[in-house]
TrEMBL record:
It comes from the Bacteria. Keywords: Aminotransferase, Pyridoxal phosphate, Transferase. GO terms for molecular function: diaminobutyrate-2-oxoglutarate transaminase activity; pyridoxal phosphate binding. This is Diaminobutyrate--2-oxoglutarate transaminase. Its cofactor is pyridoxal 5'-phosphate. InterPro entries: Aminotrans_3, Aminotrans_3_PPA_site, PyrdxlP-dep_Trfase, PyrdxlP-dep_Trfase_major, PyrdxlP-dep_Trfase_small. It is an enzyme of class 2 (transferase). Belongs to the class-III pyridoxal-phosphate-dependent aminotransferase family. NCBIfam families: PRK07483.1.
Length: 423
């Protein structure tokens, strides 16, 4: 019997005992092809020798020193690299232990920014209905997954939400993409005016929506419109790139393909590629300057922030991505993978849409292709797909659920960047 409180209390998962490249092995001798990088985490696959060597070297030198006393070379080098590689003046980095912690950090940094600007009334975030930003209380409150929020609702801050950019389901027949995008932006502006811009801290969104809606890229011009509204009404733009960042869509950050510069960027998953728990917030110069010239400190902090071994692992991951030109590989192999998916499933009666960017791809599953009618929640399709895939030695990341009153199932595919066309 396992003493771990597993995700499924009625059924413990298989026990992984080793992993290398795209293969994970369990204690029964079965092997699994990792076509989802876990949950879009393992961008370099498993047991990459350069990352392991960097971690070993760091452990031997300095495994831990608390940030209330010391900084460390690995964290400094990682932050410098992230600042140098990020566009614009995203020059400041706060290192934490994962995506949810990074989202909490961004929310608090944004709030303190408003307080220090003499605008303490600003206390609300606007977010989107189909979104996931993490499972800690602040991040959960921002996210759009009702099922995840429901038991904890009394503990959560209130968050007004607007529609996500979900062209496959929401663009009306005969409506152009431009008109659909304009309608989304009009909805956001109406929400800003309804709440009162003087009460708002910022707008939070995943640049490419990951788990809740299945690799949903924005329509052209959507984020440029969002940026314009944020500037017009004095809101910070906070982009969650925990899943879509760090090269997953073919550029280091997905927002680079949108022609916008957010004020804060939230990172996790691919930053450490699963080798160590690490997340980060990138902040623009004006955000940090305000705290620097104000109280002089960000009222936040965690025991494991800026962890030397986590920073060394993330640094090694980022060096490998650059050295091996993996961003280009993501674009090329991602396009090839998408073609293969179209060939295999383009005419499947239960695949409604095949979409995504780079190596963040998804199949949306429907009962009926013409009406786009989803499957009945009672059939627990996503759980069945995952189980059948695992039985056949394949890791994919299916999701389903009722989000904002709508039912949907999809299978997320996020292979390691090193995956070959054959794999
Ligand atoms: N934000 C997004 C977009 C995510 O996909 C996730 C995790 O799936 C998170 C935040 C939370 O990250 P973590 O699970 O590392 O806390």
């Amino acid at each position: 019997m396992s003493h771990i409180i597993h995700r499924n209390l009625r059924r413990a998962p298989p026990l992984a005992v080793s992993a290398a490249g795209l293969t994970v092995r369990d204690n029964q001798g079965r092997s699994y092809l990792d076509a989802s990088g876990g949950a879009a985490v393992s961008s370099l696959g498993h047991a990459h020798p350069d990352v392991l060597a960097a971690m070993h070297a760091q452990i031997d030198r300095n495994a831990y020193a608390h940030t209330a006393f010391f900084s460390c070379d690995a964290a400094e080098e990682l932050a410098t690299r992230l600042a140098n590689d990020a566009p614009g003046d995203l020059d400041h980095v706060y290192l934490v232990s994962g995506g949810s912690e990074a989202m909490e950090t961004a929310l608090k940094l944004a709030r303190q920014y408003c307080v220090e600007a003499g605008q303490p009334k600003r206390s609300l975030f606007i977010a989107r209905r189909q979104s996931y930003h993490g499972n800690t209380l602040g991040a959960l409150a921002i996210g759009g997954n009702e099922w995840r929020r429901r038991p904890f609702e009394p503990l959560l801050i209130q968050v007004p939400r607007v529609a996500p950019c979900y062209e496959y389901r929401d663009r009306a027949e005969g409506q152009s993409t431009e008109d659909y995008t304009a309608a989304l932006l009009a909805e956001l502006e109406a929400a800003i005016l309804q709440q009162g811009p003087e009460n708002l801290i910022g707008f939070v969104a995943e640049t490419v929506v990951g788990a809740t809606a299945g690799a949903l890229p924005p329509t052209p011009g959507y984020f440029r419109g969002v940026r314009r509204l944020c500037d017009q009404y004095g809101l910070l733009l906070i982009l969650d790139e925990v899943m879509c960042g760090m090269g997953r869509t073919g550029t280091l950050y997905a927002f680079e393909q949108e022609g916008v510069l957010p004020d804060l960027v939230v990172l996790g998953k691919g930053l450490g590629a699963g080798y160590q728990p690490i997340g980060a917030v990138l902040a623009r110069e004006h955000v940090v300057r305000r705290l620097h010239e104000g109280s002089g400190a960000f009222q936040h902090g965690h025991t494991y922030m800026g962890h030397p071994v986590a920073a060394a692992a993330a640094l090694a991951v980022q060096k490998v991505i650059q050295r091996d030109c993996l961003l280009g590989a993501v674009t090329v192999r991602g396009a090839a993978f998408r073609r293969q998916l179209r060939e295999a499933f383009g005419n499947h009666p239960h695949v409604g849409d095949i979409r995504g960017r780079g190596m963040l791809l998804a199949l949306e599953l429907v009962r009926d292709r013409d009406s786009k009618q989803p499957f009945d929640p009672a059939c627990q399709l996503h759980a069945a797909v995952k189980e059948q895939a695992m039985t056949r030695g394949l890791m994919v990341y299916p999701m389903g659920g009722t989000i904002d009153g709508r039912r949907g199932d999809h299978i997320l595919l996020a292979p390691p960047f090193i995956a070959t066309e054959v794999e």
